[in-house]
Amino acid sequence: MLGRLAELFFFGLAPLMLGGLLMPGAVAAEEVAITGEVSYRERMALPPNAVLTVRLLDVSLADAPETVVGEQKIDPAGQVPIKFEIKFDSAVVQAKATYALQARIMVENQLWFINDQRYAVDPLKPEPAQMVLKMVKQSADAAPATLFDTNWLAEDINGRGVIDNAQSTFSVTRDGKVAGSGGCNRYFAQAEIKDDRIEIGKAGATMMACAPALMDQEGKFLAALEKAATFRIDGDGKLFLVDADGADIVRFASQG
What is the pTM of this model? Predict the structure, then answer.
């Protein structure tokens, strides 16, 4: 009897199970791509060190950071129109989620162009994207804010604001020396910066004791610096440190 059952399994059920695994409905998720090109209306050429970054973002939650689904970085960008192709795994696409493309052109860590309106897409039924970027303008009487040699004051940490009387500051030189105040103690660190990428090492700091709320903010601020993966400066001159998942973790205003 046991022999008969074994024979039934190997010659009957096993092929059926294998066949089920090979049915079309069991096909694994595949890599898909969104293609398109980026341009702008201004009659000007990009410098040879311009960098174009195009990202596919999940923008479903209005009160939460956008999630990066796929990205292509073109360095050097060349001249417009610039063609791009973002590849990603179709398995990460959610049926009821909302997706959009974001494109920006950076030159020496400064934002030159960005799409100022949401460019919605269906990742699984993509049409060739035609993205027209807007130039980022600064006021005529103010010099553009730069990452380097600028004193930056934190306005928001991890989406929870800051304590008004706690001045958490950040500055970095072109050779990567980072310094500032955490809100209580002075700190210092070393950063590696290339294009819009930034990696800040573990900070050293003085050992003053302050009120618990100030110490708590200082700890969260220094921890956020270590999580920074990229940065951007928007059209209002605000500096954003962004983590590896594409979430804004610190927003700064320039103090000059």
Answer: 0.49
